[in-house]
Amino acid sequence: MKKNKKILIGILVLISLLIILPFLISIRSYLNDAEALVSDELGVPVTISSGRLVLFPSPRVVINGLNVGKSSELKVEQVTVIPSLSTIFSETRVIDIDIIKPIVKKSAIDIVSAMLDKRSASIGQSNAINIQHITVDELSFDWPDMKLPMLNLEVNLTGANQLDSAKLETLDAALIANITPEAESYLISVRAKKWTLPVGLPLFVDSAELDMHLKANRLEIPRADIAMYGGKVTANLNLLWNKSWRTNGNVKVAHISVKEPSRLVSKAVYLSGKLSGNGYFSGSAKDVAALADHLNADFKFKVNDGVLHGLDLIKVASLLTKQTVGGQTAFDEFSGVFNAKGKQYHLNNLEISSGLLSGTGQVKINANKELDGAGEVELKRSASLVAIPLDVSGTVGSPVVLPSKAALAGAVAGTAILGPGVGTSVGIKAAGAIGKLKGLFQDD
Hints:
The chain is an alpha+beta fold. It is 22% helix and 50% strand. The protein has a 21-stranded mixed β-sheet, sandwiched between helices. β1 and β2 (60-68) form a beta hairpin. The relative contact order is 0.05.
């Protein structure tokens, strides 16, 4: 009995020592050496707030408050390094790394790029440390122009510290990406369900499937299938980077309900109906952050059996006065070409038709979202089939459509000379003809 008590007491003392011992051992000097080593490797300052040695449930080093970069481009709440006990005295030590709550700023791209370049240059050299497994919990991005979701990441590496497999997913598992080596490239399979796009308009994706191939400085997406708003989007994309970033691709849209997406652009004037179309895009920039602002795109579109909400074109053309508030314009077909050049957007060759009216036009959308455009509306059931010239102004969120000043002036002059009805029509026609003639000699 006494012997058992002594054994029990001995075990309790040993456990107590193992718990207390890490707090008695200072590893500050090792952390200082680690800061200097990593700073020299990355070429940017690296600081560590504190660290400690932990023996339970297995020996490990816990680092708190890791900051990388002059402006803390990368911050990590906690990093835990867990060595494999069987390799502690081996020539190559095997470790696992757990990372908790890292925050990555947009400016960290340059640091990561430089690190990957150095990593590529060192491939084939012997390594004293083999990282076997990396887990990242609650990875977040501090990017002002994007609202990216938090992510969890698991990475498995080979004995040569090369990628064996990786899995990335959002905290709600709405998006999952698996990465595996494939010959001299990597296959990245992405699957999404009930996911909102974090870039641009917050469009809702019902489901998406795409396989990407990453090789050296090239990313290829041969096909992406996306189901959204009752329709389907198929696309392909190539992204290349070396001294600059370049991209190109094609996109096709089929039977997408445009009511909800168009309301994200403007709640005052928006469309409903089914959208179909196809087009291509390309662009180049010095860095990836600027690539979205240097895209060129052409997209032919058609919306069938829809309604233009918030604007009654029949009243605008009939009253020949100010724009009416509210109302709507039903149409059989609305078509055109969307063209983008950097931050300049154009809607060209616009055509709208129904049993009551037909119309044409074009609109330029400036970088500040102001509208500048012109068009014509012909009322098919009016007493005189006159095309009423219209001016488009205002902003994307609050467009203004009015009969052109020339049309109003022509209507007044024609009415004064020839009387209402015929005179009004003749004046409007004359104004329209003059406007078209003037347009032939004006630059876009």
